[in-house]
Specification:
Organism: Rhizoctonia solani 123E
Keywords: Membrane, Transmembrane, Transmembrane helix
Shape: rod-shaped
Largest sheet: 10 strands, mixed
Protein name: Putative transmembrane protein
Structural class: alpha+beta
Number of strands: 34
Number of domains: 4
Strand content: 25-35%
Mean pLDDT: 71
Radius of gyration: 57 Å
Length: about 775
């Protein structure tokens, strides 16, 4: 069917015809063409050819050339749907891809995963903040990251690896939370526990991984048994590696930081995590390295701690100590930081007779910095009360002996603060109190005046006024010393005493030092050196303590020479014992005194014991207790004139000197009792020899008992001296005087070779000068 020249299908024609006929369904009017339409009652009077007549025809014609417009929202919705579908497909693809990479990690052992993924350096800084009964609060600074590339096995060649790397960078970081971290040694001995806060670690896909600084506060709870910690440290030092077994009951890893949103959906939880850490111990400065094929020797910690300076200050309330010590930083790459609190210690002396050490001082360190290469310690404290018995104070005596001899002395340093942490036992470290650069010269400027040598019967006595300057070392200049008693033990020399006096054996370990007791004790006598020093002829040692007085120095110089105190004592009637085989030196000295206008110079050198009170030192229950210091070196000179010789029957210069019988003196040299021969008096030979010598009558010596029984005549005036009277002539009436008998001459020839016994054999032999005896003090 064709309508208006249009080719339409039958269904379209029927639809079009139906739509065109719908308006005339209720009327009987037939379709007419526009030109033949009859007039009806509805026909308007004024018809319009443009509207009414043409509308039905136009509506009934098919509109072939018109296009339907689609709304823009339709296109936007379609595009959004397509994009959303692509994104969802991409997300699903990424999720399944990431899951394919992550799912093997979920089945991996936590220890292997931790070693593979965690990369860290440090700690670069370590600060101790405080310690309480809960433990030690520390602040640790280091650098760490999670190596996502190594953990997931990513590469830059595959598309999926790039996609997973992109996803890891979008996550950015992970948050790690753990329960208490327990640390065990190589043999599963419990050492410590750590309580860590929640840590946020960055994820890195670069090579090498980029580390970021991290600072955390850690609560360290050490083991109660300190011996286990010491055993682990010793084993680690010997092997050069510290092996730690770390165990964590529960670990939780969450994606992103705490404020993340969708990243929290990444959630991994592990249980019973165990990791083995092997820490290599680097070489420590000042300690020799380990041998190639053997364990590393135990370090000598005493040689590492160096006491740079120290000073003893006077009270109040007691003697105070300040000083500075240094020690090398054992781990310079790790221990960088500070300890912002004071650490108390107790300094003790090793025991001698008892089992327990003797505490002598309590000190504490100021907040210190962990620097490289050395760590400096500022120390302050006070001296503890000392025991009142000599047996208990024996370690102090040995310490003083080493100090006076410029030898290092062992000490014990005990950590006192471990009790606050609930640790059973104490950690004691052996250290060494360093020796002085030079031996302390306590007794200086010894002045001997008003010396008198008195002969009473067969014994020679000496009296003098002794004044000495006690100058403590620089570290002890501020303390107050009051000397109350002295006990000298000296050798007397014909001339000045040697500067390096004979008791100067550096290898000697003879005892000297300090004693304290309620009763005064007698110091041990000084052993005589072997061989005897040159020009030494007598020994002075009193029988008891000599009361001394102390006077504060008036001049205080900057060079410390005038500081200290002056001690003076009056030595009266002290026995002067002639040394074995030194009668010739004594005879020569007396001749110098008698016949030289200025007298003779005498030197003394030896040791002296001094009892002194130290201000602020508590001994027993008494403050400023009295200590007996013995073995102090003493040296001085004095001039002895003719007026100082009392009780001697002095002959003329031409006459000989009658010496008394010299008694034996106690000595440690193994010799027999000396036998003193009786002097033999013979006539003096004529001054001018003649051709025919005139025989002289032989003078018989008097019995020895009579010589010993005859006392020496005391002079009324000590400044006027008499000479033996010349024998009177037999008959004064004879005009020609007979020759005057000459005074007898003593025969001392047997004394030049030493003392002989009754059989004429020499019993005192001096050994070579290379062999020395151990002496009272090693100076």
């Amino acid at each position: 069917m064709r309508i208006s020249g249009c080719d339409l299908p039958p269904s379209a024609v029927r639809s079009r015809v139906t739509r065109c006929q719908r308006p005339d369904r209720n009327s009987n009017t037939q379709m007419h063409t526009p030109g033949n339409a009859p007039a009806t009652e509805q026909t308007p009077l004024l018809s319009s050819s443009n509207t009414t007549d043409t509308t039905p025809a136009q509506d009934c014609r098919p509109k072939v050339q018109q296009h339907t417009r689609v709304p823009w929202t339709y296109h936007v919705g379609t595009l959004a749907f397509v994009i959303l579908s692509f994104v969802l497909c991409l997300i699903v693809t990424i999720i399944f891809t990431v899951h394919a990479y992550v799912s093997p990690l979920l089945r991996t052992e936590p220890s292997v995963l931790a070693q593979r993924s965690l990369v860290y350096e440090g700690p670069s800084r370590f600060n101790v903040l405080n310690y309480t009964s809960d433990g030690i609060w520390c602040e640790v600074t280091g650098a760490a990251t999670i190596d996502a590339s190594r953990t997931l096995g990513l590469s830059s060649n595959r598309f999926t690896d790039k996609l997973v790397g992109w996803a890891a960078r979008r996550v950015g970081s992970v948050t790690v939370s753990t329960s208490r971290v327990q640390i065990f040694s190589y043999d599963n001995t419990y050492l410590a526990a750590l309580e860590l806060p929640t840590i946020t670690l960055p994820l890195s896909t670069k090579y090498p991984p980029q580390l970021q600084p991290i600072t955390v506060q850690v609560l360290l709870r050490p083991a109660k048994n300190v011996d286990d910690i010491v055993k682990f440290a010793s084993h680690s030092w010997e092997t050069g590696v510290g092996e730690l077994r770390v165990h964590v009951d529960k670990g939780l890893i969450v994606g992103g930081n705490r404020s993340s949103g969708w990243r929290k959906w990444i959630h991994v939880e592990k249980h019973d995590i165990g990791v083995i850490l092997r820490l290599e111990i680097p070489p420590i400065p000042g300690i020799p390295p380990a041998p190639p094929n053997g364990p590393r020797p135990t370090p000598d910690l005493a040689s590492l701690v160096y006491l740079q300076s120290y000073r003893v200050l006077p009270p109040p309330p007691t003697l105070r100590l300040v000083g500075t010590a240094t020690l090398p930083n054992p781990l310079p790459s790790i221990l960088q930081g500070a300890i912002a609190l004071s650490l108390p210690f107790v300094v003790s002396l090793p025991p001698i007779d008892s089992k327990n050490p003797l505490p002598i001082a309590r000190v504490e360190t100021a907040p210190l910095g962990l620097t490289t290469p050395n760590i400096s310690l500022a120390i302050s404290g006070h001296v503890l009360p000392l025991p009142s018995s000599s047996s208990s104070i024996a370690p102090v005596s040995r310490f003083a002996s080493d100090f006076l001899a410029a030898r290092p002395s062992p000490v014990l340093i005990t950590t006192d603060f471990l009790r606050d942490l609930g640790i059973l036992g104490e950690l004691t470290v052996k250290a060494e109190f360093p020796a002085s650069a030079e031996r302390p010269d306590l007794l200086r400027d010894v002045q001997i005046s008003n010396m008198r040598i008195v002969l009473r019967g067969e014994q020679i006595f000496a009296s003098a006024f002794v004044r000495a300057h006690i100058v403590p070392p620089t570290s002890l200049l501020d303390i107050h010393i009051n000397a109350t008693r002295v006990w000298p033990d000296l050798l007397v020399y014909d001339g000045p005493a040697p500067q390096l006096w004979p008791f100067n054996n550096p290898n000697s370990r003879a005892y000297s030092g300090v004693e304290y007791d309620e009763q005064w004790t007698e110091p041990d006598p000084m052993p005589l050196p072997r061989p005897l020093p040159r020009n030494a002829f007598a020994r002075i040692r009193p029988d008891s303590w000599i009361i001394a007085h102390t006077q504060v120095s008036d001049d205080q110089h900057d060079d410390n020479e005038g500081q200290g105190v002056w001690v003076h004592a009056q030595v009266s009637d002290v026995p002067l014992d002639v040394l074995p085989g030194r009668d010739g030196e004594l005879r020569a000295f007396i001749r110098k005194v008698l016949f030289n206008p200025g007298g003779a110079q005498a030197g003394v050198a030896g040791i002296s014991a001094v009892a002194a009170r130290v201000g602020g030192l508590v001994v027993g229950s008494k403050e400023s207790g009295e200590l007996e210091m013995y073995g102090l070196p003493l040296r001085g000179e004095t001039w002895v004139g003719k007026k100082s010789m009392l009780g001697w029957d002095l002959p003329s210069p031409e006459d000989s000197i009658p010496l008394p019988t010299i008694p034996a003196i106690p000595t440690r040299i193994p010799t027999a009792l000396p036998h003193i021969p009786v002097p033999t008096f013979i006539s003096e030979p004529p001054r001018r020899p003649t051709s025919v010598p005139v025989p002289q009558p032989k003078v018989e010596p008097e019995p020895e008992a009579e010589l010993e029984a005859e006392p020496y005549e005391d002079l009324n005036d000590e400044y006027d001296y008499e000479y033996w009277p010349e024998p009177a002539s037999e008959t004064e009436s004879v005009p020609e005087p007979k020759p005057k008998p000459k005074p007898p001459v003593e025969d001392w020839s047997t004394f030049d070779g030493g003392r002989d016994d009754s059989d004429g054999r020499a019993i005192y032999q001096v050994q070579s000068s290379e062999e020395l005896w151990q002496i009272g003090v090693a100076y």
